[in-house]
Amino acid sequence: MTPYLLNITPLTAFGGALHGDTLFGQLCWTLAHRIGDATVSQLLQGYTNNQPFAVVSDAFPAGYLPKPHLPSNYFSPLADISQRKAAKEKIWLSAAVLKDNPSIAMNQLCNQYAKSNQEIGFESKQAHQPHNSINRLSNTTGEAGFTPYQTEQHWYPQGSQLEVVVLIDTQRISATQIQQAFEDIGMTGYGRDASIGLGKFRVNGFTPTQLAHQPKATHYLSLANVAPQGLGFHEKNSFYKTFTRFGRHGSMAVSSGKPFKAPIMLATAASVFAHDHQNASYIGQGLGGLNSPISNHDARTIHQGYAPVLQVRIEKEILA
User: What pLDDT, on the 0 to 100 scale, is given for residue 251?
Assistant: First the structure.
C-alpha cells in the first residue's frame, strides 16, 4: 500500500480527538455519497480478510510521532523522583529525529529528544458546552429527556497543523478520490456534533510520503487504534493501552432505530508489538462483516481494526 500524508488545519472545536478508526468510518460514508454505495461495497470486499483499500492513522501534531507506550524501565532512570510528572508529559518525538538516527533505538531517542505539548506549542484544551432541549408543550427544559446536559469539546491550538498517515491501495482507488473525500469531511465536519458546527478543518496537502522505518526493527509502533488479537505477536514484549469503542453508525444509518454497534476493545495508538523481524506497513484486522457482525442494523457493517505502523527498534535500558 502507498503511504500518503494528510496535512490539515482545524477550523473549529471538535467533539473528540481525531481517531483513525472513526475517521475511516466517516471516509467510507463520504465516499458512498460521492462515488456511490455499489462502488464502496466493491472497495470493502475482502476487508475482513486482510485486504483493506485504505488504512487511516490518528491525527498527530505536524512533524511529530507518539512516544511508545513502554514501562518506565525502558527509559533512563530519573535522577529525581519529582521529575516523574514532567517525564510523563513528554509524549512526542520528532519524525525528523527518528529519520536522522536510524541506528539508535527509538526508546533511547525518546530519552533525549521527547517533547511535551507545551514544548512543541501544541497545548490543546477541553471545555464543556451546555445543551438542553425544549419541551414544546410546557416551553421549559423540564424532565424526562429535556434536562440540560453538558458535552465536552476539544480545541486544538489556533493555526496548528495536524498530520494523518493514510495507506492507500492505489490499484483500487485513486489518491485524488481519497483527498476529495477528506476535503468533504473537512467542510461538513468530523465526528460528534458536526451538525451544529464542530469538526471542521481545512486540507492543506495530501502527498506521498516515506515512513521512518528503522533497520533491524524489533517492534511495530501503531499509529491508530488497532485489533492485534491472534496475530502472533510476542505477548511478554508487547505493550499497549486498551480502549473500548462504543461505536455508532453514521450518516443516514444513525436514524435507523438501531444506531449503536457492539462494543469493540482495541489497543490505542503508540502501542508497540514485538515480532520476529517482520515487514509490514500496517497490522491488525478488519472487524465485523457477515461472519462476525457488530451491528444489528446491517450485518455487513465493518470497523477499522487495522493501523498504520512504524517499524522501530526498542532496546531495554540496563539499569545501574
Answer: 65
Helices (H), the chain: 20-35, 37-43, 84-88, 95-100, 106-113, 175-188
C-alpha cell at 278: 517482520
Nearest to 75 by CA among 64, 63, 90, 65: 90
* Total residue count of the chain as it appears in this document: 320
Q: Where are the domains of the chain?
A: 2-115+157-312
Cβ neighbours of residue 133 closer than 8 Å, sequence gap 6 or more: 141, 145, 146
Q: Model pTM?
A: 0.89
Q: Buried b vs exposed e over 279-299: b needs ≥16 C-beta within 10 Å?
A: eebbbbbbbbbeeebbbebee
Question: What is the distance between the alpha carbons of residues 159 and 105, in angstroms, rounded to a whole number?
Answer: 33
Return phi, psi of residue 55, to 5°: -135, 130
Q: For residue 54, what is its C-alpha cell?
A: 485504505
Contact 144, 158 (CB under 8 A): no
Q: Which residues of the chain have pLDDT under 70?
A: 131, 142, 144-146, 251-257, 297, 317-320
pLDDT value of residue 320? 37
- Within 10 Å of residue 253's Cβ, how many Cβ atoms? 16
Dihedrals phi, psi of 5, to nearest 5 degrees? -115, 115
**Residue 182 in grid coordinates:** 477528506
Q: Hey, how many other C-beta atoms are within 10 angstroms of the C-beta on 72?
A: 12
> Which residues, at least 6 apart from 280, have a Cβ–Cβ distance to it below 8 Å?
220, 309, 311
**Burial class of residue 108 in the structure, from the number of CB atoms within 10 Å of its CB (0-12 exposed, 13-18 middle, 19+ buried):** middle
Q: Could you tell me how far CA 224 lies from the centroid of its own chain?
A: 4
pLDDT tens-digit series, residues 230-239? 999 999 999 9
Cβ proximity of 155 and 125 under 8 Å = yes
